[in-house]
Amino acid sequence: MNMIQLEQTNSHYLLSIPQALMARAKKIKPRQWDPRGLVWKYPRDKDTYELLLDEFENDIEKVVITPPNNINTEESQKLAKKNKTISDLQKKVKSLESNLSLIKDQRDQYLSSIIQLTKKVEHLKNEDNDLEKNIKKFAKLCIGNDHLFSNIIEEIEFDNTLPIELQKKLSNILKSKLNPINPSIDFIDLISLAKDKKLLSNDAIHLLHIIRRQRNLFAHNSIEPKTRLMRVIYVIAAFSLLSSEF
Q: What integer is the mean pLDDT of 221-238?
C-alpha cells in the first residue's frame, strides 16, 4: 500500500504522498508544499483535477475529490448579493427622484407666492412711497398682529442685515423650544434637531433652510446688488409663512 491520499478544500486539492514518489507530485503544476500539513497543495480547477486523476486515480482506493462547479457556488452567492444591492440602490434612486420632484413642486409654489407678494408690494408702493412700511404691513397680515413673529417684523431693520438678524431670532426661538445640550449649536443642526423631534413640518424645515441659505449669501457678500431687495423680501416671505407653526 503506497499511502497516496487525495483530499480537497473549497479552493485547493491536497496530495499526501510518500517521499519516494515525490517526483510524481512535482510533475503537476502549479503546486505548493505545505510544511505544516505535509501535503502538496494544488489549485482547485478543472485542469488540475484532470491531471491529478490521470496521475493518481489507479493508486487510491476511492476518489473523493470533485471538479469545481462551472459556476462556483460562493461566486454565485456574491453575484446574487451584488444584484440585490443594485436593486436596492435603484429603489433608493427612484425614491430620491420622487422626493426631488416633490421638492421642486414646493419650490415652484413658494416662488409663485413670492411673485404674488412682489405684485402686491408694487401695488402698495404706488399708494405709499414707504416700501419698508408696506412690506412689513403685508407680512404682518400673513402672520397676525398678536404673534411673536409680527413683533419681530415690526422691530427689525429693513436692510442687508435683515436675513442675518432674522436667523438669529429664529435660532433663539428654536433653542427655547428644543433645549439642546450644546447652547452654541449651529442653526443647521437646530433645523436637523427640530426635524428629528418632529417639532416642525417638512414645509417649515424647507422654509428654515431658505432663510439659512439666504443668510449665508448676505453674510459672505456673494450676491448681486440688484437682487438684494428681492432676496430680503424672499426671506421675509419665508419667515412669515413659518409663523403658522410657532
A: 90
Q: If you average pLDDT over residues 100-119, what whole number do you get?
A: 84
| Digit-coded pLDDT (tens) for 82-96 | 878 898 898 889 889
Q: Helical H runs in the chain?
A: 22-26, 46-56, 73-127, 131-143, 148-155, 162-178, 187-196, 202-219, 228-242
Lookup result for grid cell 501535503: 39
Tell me if residue 47 falls in helix, strand or coil. Answer: helix
Cell of 17: 504522498
Give the burial class of 162: count Cβ atoms within 10 A of its Cβ; 0-12 exposed, 13-18 middle, 19 or more buried: buried
Dump the DSSP string for 58-121. Answer: GGSSS----PPPSS-HHHHHHHHHHHHHHHHHHHHHHHHHHHHHHHHHHHHHHHHHHHHHHHHH
